[in-house]
Amino acid sequence: MSLTIYGVLRSRASRPIWLAHELGLDFQHVPVIQSYRLADAAAPGAPLNTASPDFLAVNPNGLVPSLKDGDFVLHESLAICLYLARKAGGELAPRDSQEEALMTQWALWAATEVEPKSLSILRGVEVEASSAGLRRPFAVLEQQLKSGGGFVLGGRFTVADIMVAEIVRYAAASKALFAEFPAISSWLATAQARPAHQRMAADRAKEPA
Ligand SMILES: N[C@@H](CCC(=O)N[C@@H](CS)C(=O)NCC(=O)O)C(=O)O
Fold first, then answer.
1. pLDDT of residue 1
2. CA distances (Å), origin 7, targets 2, 92, 114, 182, 185
């Protein structure tokens, strides 16, 4: 089956694309850009964007990333990551239904308990309050990493590390917050040093800011 991932790397498409590199998947990358980043997303000759009819036919939410696996279409970056990991199998995937449940738990935890505040920090909005609000969830992750051999679960690097790292990283500008959590800081640096992440990040750096 042919795999296609839609979304520029300067978007949450970085998550499934980092994972796809980890898994050695062959895929087509369609760099759909966010419409709000264009002066006129509807202008003739505008690049394929989240408001383009051709992309809305793939994802009527008008959001990236999306995945096509043959005729199967999937939205939501974390659902796509979980799907790709399960489909590929191996060390990054859940070994049993309990690991699968824990991966779902950590994905939902990151999206609901961390992402709204980490994104605020990334955007420079309410940085103090958002950093303060992240102390409790970060303390939970810190403890988990310390007791789990430096990984989110399973004593090994899995898709859960990618999903959580990609959401925690948005808060990186809050240096004082990270200074309080050395296990998170070193886990994030180690995850981002992996060749698959480096490859994604190098390609992302080539995209227009
Ligand atoms: N919960 C969604 C969020 C998707 C999302 O908000 N994507 C942004 C880019 S990171 C987007 O496509 N924005 C386009 C727009 O708002 O027009 C996911 O994780 O995939």
1. 59
2. 17, 23, 22, 32, 28
Kindly give the number of the ligand 1 atom that is closest to the alpha carbon of 65: 20
Distance from residue 31's CA to the centre of ligand 1 (Å): 13
Pocket probe for ligand 1: among 5, 10, 12, the residue whose CB has the most ligand atoms within 8 Å is 12
Boundaries of domain holding 58:
3-90
- C-beta 104 within 6 A of ligand 1: no
Which CATH number fits the domain that encloses residue 116?
1.20.1050.10
Q: Determine which residue's CA is closest to atom 10 belonging to ligand 1.
A: 11
Whether residues 118 and 32 fall in one domain: no
pTM: 0.98
Cα–Cα distance between 199 and 194 in angstroms, integer?
9
Q: Same structural domain for residues 110 and 86?
A: no
pLDDT tens-digit readout, 3-13: 999 999 999 99
Last residue of a domain, one of 90, 125, 159: 90
